[in-house]
Design brief:
Elements: E1 5-15, E2 18-28, E3 35-45, E4 56-61, E5 69-76
Parallel strand pairs: 3-5
Antiparallel strand pairs: 1-2, 1-4, 2-3, 4-5
């Protein structure tokens, strides 16, 4: 089974080897068909601390690395 991949913006890089990535998803209401946005924040593993606040990155789901960290950064998109 392939791992989930998401695209998001780094909002915090203050921890060691960990970044917080905000993923924005546009959804559509099932009855009223209005579009609205949902934001979710994920803690992702950054082994070399090479990504910083404001970077757009792709993250991938992985095995649990700590109590709150289950994602890792794959690459910088922008």
């Amino acid at each position: 089974m392939p791992n989930k991949k998401l695209l998001g913006e780094i909002v915090s890089d203050k921890m060691q080897k960990t970044v917080v990535v905000k993923v924005t998803v546009v959804k559509r209401h099932p009855k009223y068909h209005k579009r609205y946005t949902i934001h979710k924040r994920y803690k992702a593993h950054d082994d070399k601390s090479e990504f910083h606040t404001g970077d757009i990155v792709e993250i991938e789901e992985t095995k649990p690395l700590s109590s709150g960290k289950r994602w890792r950064v794959l690459r910088k998109v922008k």
